[in-house]
Amino acid sequence: MVTSQTVLIAVKSPLQAFNAIEYHHYLKTQGVSLKVYAIVFCSARKPQLADLLSRLLAGIDSVTLRVAPVVPGEKGWWYSLSERKPARRFSHTLASILSSMPAPDEIVIGDYRSRECRHLAAQFPAARIVLLDDGSATHQIARFRRNPRDPKLAPMFPHNDLRSLRLKMWAGITLPPIRHLTFFSHYAINLSPHDHLIPHHYEFWRSRLAGRQHATGDEILFLGMSHVEKKLTTRECYLESLQKIKEFYQERRVVYRPHRDESAEKLADVAGLGFIVSRPDLLPVELSLIESSALPAEVASIASSALDNLAIIFSNSLTLRCFTPGAKYCDGVMNGHFSDIIHYHIENRHNNLKVVGLELQATR
Fold it and tell me: What is the helix (H) or strand (E) element at residue 364, kind and residue range?
């Protein structure tokens, strides 16, 4: 018997959109008749990102797609009255969008850490909430769901603090707890007793590779990380790691693919180390390689979750290498989060993922 289901998808990043397409494919394999709506949460200052997310989600059959602004992100105690107008704009826009669609049976969110997705989930308490993988953040979200006071948690979750009180008072933006959460993930994660897991192995995206023959080039593709910008490490430690990685590859050509959040100043330093820095590309690297006619000789990075994804999607047809720095690399408040990533790479790596340790001399 075919059942009917209304699904509302909300994403904020290219990887979340990539995984939303995988989840839509999963639902189709369950014999469910779907009515799909999607919301892209994106700052007006990032029109290219909003356009990319919209184009990716437009690949979902008969989707009704809308773009909504984000909650103002500044958190300082001095930043109060000026956030009232954008907060109300977010709340009013979202309310208008939701009034034009039926109540969903299921809400699929890409970012558990965002006020936008959490507030959206609160509007439909009877709906099932499904969480898409958002890279390595999935490990911390699972940890947070098990114990919100875990000392290894990084400061990446919104709290009901003074700022939350202002947002609630001015715009009705709330952060009620999500009692039951369903993870849609390929990670082996330890769940809270209140949560569930729908495992996947990128069946849809792997099917896009069926029968394809990729040429293999000689260059190394290195995935840049925003570890400095997100304060996981210092500029000195990051650049020292890259210098050691460049020495590891000796004279081989290494193309550095920037993360979308990396600063231009840091990328200039990276080029000075001998990397060929490519133009920033908002498309998920997973999709870039799926659509490419040629694969690099190897894809490498420092603890990037893209390596886990690529290991599943490309199986043994793509060589992957993860460089793991020592304790000096990340010894601040993000240490628990970074340790989770490193531990997972080491304990759950696939046959085509090699792990290489780096010894660093730089100190914080």
Answer: none
Is 186 in contact with 134 (CB distance < 8 Å)? no
Long-range contacts, stretch 333-336, CB < 8 angstroms, 24+ apart:
333/154, 333/155, 333/231, 334/154, 334/155, 334/230, 334/231, 334/232, 335/152, 336/140, 336/143, 336/150, 336/151, 336/152, 336/153, 336/154
Q: What is the four-CA torsion angle of 28, 135, 120, 142, rounded to 10 degrees?
A: 100
Angstrom distance (rounded) from CA 338 to CA 139: 10
Within 8 A by CB and 6+ apart from 3, the residues are 31, 32, 33
**C-alpha–C-alpha distance, residues 167 and 233, integer Å:** 31
Question: How many whole angstroms separate alpha carbon 166 and alpha carbon 109?
Answer: 24
Lowest mean pLDDT among 130-139, 156-165, 236-245: 156-165
With tokens 């875990």, the residue in question is: 150
Please report how many Cα atoms fall inside a 13 Å half-sphere around the Cα of residue 331, on the Cβ side: 10
Cβ proximity of 52 and 13 under 8 Å: no
Euclidean distance between CA atoms 257 and 285, whole angstroms: 9
Q: How confident is the model at residue 358 (pLDDT cuts 50, 70, 90)?
A: confident
Backbone angles phi, psi at 325, to 5 degrees: -75, 165
Measuring CA to CA, how many Å separate 348 from each of 88, 164, 174?
44, 38, 37
Helix (H, G, I), strand (E, B) or coil at 163: helix
Tokens of 27: 């639902």
Which pTM was predicted? 0.93
Nearest partner of 187 among 176, 198, 179, 178, judged by Cα = 198
